[in-house]
Each structure stands twice: as C-alpha cells, then as structure tokens.
Sequence to fold (255 residues):
Amino acid sequence: MLVIVKEKYEEVSKEAAKLIAAKIRKKPDLVLGLATGSSPLGIYKELIRMHIEEGLDFSKITTFNLDEYIGLPPTHNQSYHYFMKQNLFDHINVDERFVHVPHGMAKDIDKFCSWYEKRIKDAGGIDLQILGIGSNGHIAFNEPGSSLGSRTRIKTLTEKTRLDNARFFADMDEVPKYAITMGVGTIMDSKEIVLIANGKGKANAVKAAAEGPITAMCPASIIQMHQRAYLFADKDASELLIGDYVDNWESVIFE
Fold:
C-alpha cells in the first residue's frame, strides 16, 4: 500500500483525481469502481472540473458502484443512484449504457447480486476502485466481521450505521435496514484501489487499515494484501501512522 499524505482534504482529492484522470487517459475504456458518501466528493468535483476545463473524456468508461440501499427507488433523494447523478454523472459525458449502480428495488435481490458479479466479470473486471473508509474500518457496507472473501450480497445495516445515516432522513423509521454491497473479495479483485480518508475521526481506522493486523474486524485492513493500492489521506486522518509515506504518487513506480 502506497500512502500519500497531503495537508488538507482539497489537496488529497486533487491528487487522487489526478491519478484517476491519468488512468483514464491511458485507457479510455477504463472500468471504474465508484463510491458514495462524503469522502469521494472532492474527487468527483475535481474530475468534473477536468472534464469541463481540460476535456477529460468519460465517454468510453464503464462504471460500477459499490452499493445501494434496498427499498429506495433510483429517484429517491437518498438513493445512491440519485447521489451519483447529482455529484458526477450529470456533469460529465459518461454513457448511461455503461453505468451500473446496484438496483435496490430488484424483485430477486440474490439473483441480482449474482448478475452484478457476472457483469463485472464480463466487463473485464474493475480496473480502478475508489473507496472511502468508515470510522470503524468498514469499506462499502462491509462492516466489521464481514468475510474477507465475500462477494456482492445483501447486508443488514448495523444500528450505528443506521444512526449515522439518520440525519439524511426525516426520521429513523425511514432509514433502510438492508443494502446491496460489493463484497470485500469483489473489491480486492480490482486491479488497482484508491482509498481516500480525511479528518481526525478516521485516524484510528486509517492506522488499523494501513498498519494494523489483517482482520475481519477492520475490513479495510485486507487492502494491505493488494499489489496496487493507494491510500490518500490528509494530515488529520494520517496523524497516527508511524510508517513512511510520500506526498506524490508519481514519485513511486510499482514493480
């Protein structure tokens, strides 16, 4: 895992977006894994800027999102379909035929999950997966205790996760109890991973993910085993790290 530390979140986002843009320019039909939540918003903002001001072309890429709430239609303002349209898809020239977000309203969720895994495989696998990290070390909706070999599936959301997300809904009863999520094994199949973290609230999770033991109690820790993983963190999120880090990913060449 290559750890890249910048002073502020905005710098972290721009550096990560620069890497992603370089990958797209090198392979215009890149298969890109996408995340939701606050962590990747800065990346998406910078990618939109690059598209508008620098002509970064998304017309041939294929995208796969990590997760979606079960029971929310794509038009719901808290669905991840809606999130992605508002924060990325509506502002770039992505081809909707190549966009994949788990379908939370599918009649047969298990069958859909199997189809999603097959669709990723048929696309040639994910070239680059963007990830955030939860304060407890979760990635996507793979909470502590999730199998490190898991595939796309239904997950029951923990009470803490539901409480964390309650602020986005009118009341607690509206917060979904289940979600579709890529599994840890699915994520690890990606050819490259970009994990972004910011803020003091993520410091313990970042330390556990980057320097702690590999354990299902911190699902993000498995990324230590990935051959081409980048962790982008600001000073606050990286304050507990004791290992070496760089401030420029272009200065390091993976073997």
Remarks:
- The chain has a mean pLDDT of 95.
